[in-house]
Specification:
seven-stranded mixed β-sheet, 2 domains, Aspartate Aminotransferase, domain 2, 41% helix, Aspartate Aminotransferase, domain 1, 15 strands, 390 residues, alpha/beta, 15% strand
């Protein structure tokens, strides 16, 4: 089946956060694709809407089975029905975990640069952010874990929770089995619970897989809460539907209580329908086509930047539709660079400053758009950087 990812869809007038500045500004920032969702999902939502009654909904066996089948078939991880708990989003789940599994003043460890909202979930709840900064190798243009620093910070009695990002946002690293097992063992030894954000797990290079943190060992399974959702994969973030996978019974009860105390544990008729329609054979076919398209976009972008904007360096990536770009040769402040590009090139990117770690000289570019839009964005980027260097 063929899917038209080249089609430009006008999103103005739809309340789109990404396109809030209008057509003249090209937004390649927030992690929101400019593709229509999978036809199977669209059809299911339209059919549900046509019913005309949108009352309270319950989670039936089809919702559980959708997650269980998808993770077994796509990721070789067998999930039991009882392990699944509905939540309206990954960030509500993380915030609930911070409140329920830690006390004010304790440390929550994150590996930076990382998704900025992690900082909010920690700081807004009166906990301390503890950064285990990923080590950046300028020769290979890649990141790795600082194990000595990680051991030291996990050993602090005030550190009680670690938020892991797998695959990693913004670098696109897919953590291998040995790395995940080592993290699990260190956390177990130091009585630290792991919240594993795996929302980007399906957006990987064609032919490549990711390894769920909880699948690696019994230790990882017993000390972890895995946050998953179809929302990034199928471009349905506005539907607000997700789940946590918690094999440990006691930990699962705490998460269930935390989620329901925060009143983010009840879905709606559309959030249930979206999951059940996305995690199907047709959803898988659409996803495979999407990944081919997105990673061809990445190849084009890397090649263009390498040939035409040599002052920038792209971080090689195996996951996500987000490109992390080193701008150290031209700026010491990515905030200023992003502001300049918006003003002079009408191009919106994410500043790396808010990601922590060494992000102050990086920008993040969203590649999940039609090819013509990507090409326009790359020309705007070239124009902006040329003007800046003059």
């Amino acid at each position: 089946m063929q899917y038209d990812f080249d089609r430009i869809i006008d999103r103005t007038g739809t309340g789109s956060w990404k396109w809030k500045n209008g057509k003249d500004m090209l937004p390649m920032w927030v992690a929101d694709m400019d593709f229509e969702t999978c036809p199977k999902v669209k059809e299911a939502l339209q059919n549900r809407a046509a019913h005309g009654i949108y009352g309270y909904s319950v989670l039936g066996k089809n919702w559980h089975q959708a997650y269980m089948s998808w993770w077994k078939e796509r990721h070789d991880f067998e999930i039991e029905k009882e392990w699944l708990v509905f939540v309206t989003g990954v960030i509500p789940a993380i915030s609930a975990a911070v409140r329920k599994l830690t006390t004010p003043g304790e440390n929550v460890l994150i590996q930076t640069p990382v998704y900025p909202v992690f900082f909010n979930s920690i700081e807004n709840n009166g906990r301390n952010v503890l950064e285990n900064r990923l080590l950046y190798d300028r020769e290979t243009v890649s990141y790795r874990i600082d194990w000595e620093d990680l051991k030291e910070k996990l050993a602090d009695p005030q550190t009680t929770l670690m938020i892991l990002c797998n695959p990693q946002n913004p670098s696109g690293n897919i953590w291998d089995k040995e790395t995940l097992q080592k993290i699990g063992e260190l956390c177990y030894e130091n009585h630290v619970i792991v919240i594993s954000d795996e929302i980007h797990c399906d957006l990987v290079v064609p032919g490549c897989g990711y390894i769920p943190f909880a699948s690696v060992s019994d230790i990882n399974k017993q000390i972890s809460v895995t946050c998953v959702a179809p929302t990034k994969t199928f471009n349905i973030a506005g539907i607000q539907t997700a789940a946590v996978i918690v094999p440990n019974k006691d930990l699962r009860h705490k998460m269930w209580r935390g989620i329901n105390t925060d009143e983010v544990g009840e879905g709606n008729c559309f959030s249930v329908t979206a999951v059940e329609s996305a995690f199907t054979k047709e959803g898988g076919q659409w996803l495979d086509a999407l990944r081919e398209y997105v990673f061809e976009n990445r190849r084009i972008a890397e090649e263009f930047i390498g040939k035409n904007i040599s002052s920038l360096r792209v971080i090689p990536s195996s996951a996500t539709y987000l490109m992390w770009v080193d701008c150290e040769r031209i700026t010491e402040d990515a905030d200023q660079l992003v502001d300049f590009l918006e003003k002079e090139a009408k191009l919106m990117l994410n500043s790396g400053v808010e990601f922590g770690g060494n992000g102050k000289t990086f920008v993040r570019i969203n590649l999940a758009c039609p090819r013509s839009m990507l090409e326009d964005g790359l020309l705007r980027l070239q124009k902006g950087i040329t003007l800046l260097q003059k």
